[in-house]
């Protein structure tokens, strides 16, 4: 998965952030980057209606830009329950999705989507139960804020932590506790240490992303069983 902007011509991982989690016939979608288009087309080959719960980490463009191309959202048989980050998350999410579909950005408005849409707010450490899932939002450091999510189901746990600047020396006890013991930790690893420190190009400290070395250190510290490096720089080949 790419950060900031999608990349064409890549063998894998050219889309911006969109992750599907399934269990017992239920589906969660984490973020609505450009990968959402292909997921929607896959869903269109399934029986209808489509009942989907979506959690947004934050509302930067690369995490919402796939939504206008999500075909199930145009069907009256679909129901989308969507969680925006923060206390004002419901209103902010609806406003952002509508704004990117207004002229001159897009030819049809959000109101063209005929699915039933419910907008809700995701709040730090307040667990949401969706079918077999327990989803816990986690505040993580990123410009303008971001939520990671701990998803638990069937005796397993998965952490989705994109767009987060985590360094070993800055890892807070609360974040470490909420990450602890995950079966899979999907963690931002956009930069190399030299890129982060400015030894190669412009220094990236404070830009809201981690290095692959810090991601590995965090995974080891919290006892994650498996680490997925995520949200790679568009320049990666």
Structure, explained:
Helix content is 18%, strand content 27%. By secondary structure, it is an alpha/beta fold. The longest helix is centred in the middle third of the chain and has 11 residues, at 89-99. The model has no long low-confidence stretch (mean pLDDT 93).
Q: Characterize the biggest β-sheet.
A: 6 strands, mixed
Q: Output the helix-strand order.
A: EEHEEHEEEEEHEHHE
Task: Name the beta content range.
Answer: 25-35%
Low-confidence stretches: none
Question: How many helices does DSSP assign?
Answer: 5
Taking all Cα atoms into account, the compactness measure Rg is: 17 Å
* Structure classification: alpha/beta
Characterize the overall form.
Answer: globular
Distance between the first and last residues' Cα: 12 Å
Strand order of the largest sheet: 6-7-8-9-10-11
| DSSP helix fraction | 10-25%
Say how many strands there are.
11
Mean pLDDT over the full residue set? 93
């Amino acid at each position: 998965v790419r950060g900031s902007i999608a990349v064409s011509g890549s063998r894998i991982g050219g889309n911006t952030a969109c992750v599907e989690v399934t269990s017992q016939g239920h589906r969660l979608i984490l973020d609505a980057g450009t990968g959402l288009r292909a997921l929607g087309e896959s869903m269109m080959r399934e029986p209808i209606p489509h009942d989907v719960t979506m959690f947004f980490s934050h509302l930067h463009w690369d995490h919402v830009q796939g939504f206008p191309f999500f075909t199930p959202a145009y069907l009256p048989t679909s129901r989308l329950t969507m969680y925006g980050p923060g206390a004002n998350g419901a209103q902010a999410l609806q406003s952002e999705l509508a704004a990117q579909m207004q002229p001159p950005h897009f030819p049809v408005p959000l109101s063209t989507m005929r699915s039933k849409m419910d907008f809700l707010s995701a709040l730090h450490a307040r667990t949401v139960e969706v079918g077999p899932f327990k989803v816990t939002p986690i505040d993580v450091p990123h410009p303008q804020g971001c939520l990671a999510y701990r998803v638990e189901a069937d005796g397993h746990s998965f952490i989705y932590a994109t767009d987060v600047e985590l360094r070993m020396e800055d890892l807070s006890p609360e974040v470490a506790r909420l990450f602890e013991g995950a079966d899979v930790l999907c963690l931002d690893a956009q930069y190399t240490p030299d890129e982060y420190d400015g030894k190669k190009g412009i220094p990236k400290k404070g830009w809201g992303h981690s290095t692959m070395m810090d991601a590995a250190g965090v995974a080891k510290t919290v006892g994650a069983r498996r680490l997925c490096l995520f949200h790679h720089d568009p320049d990666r080949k």
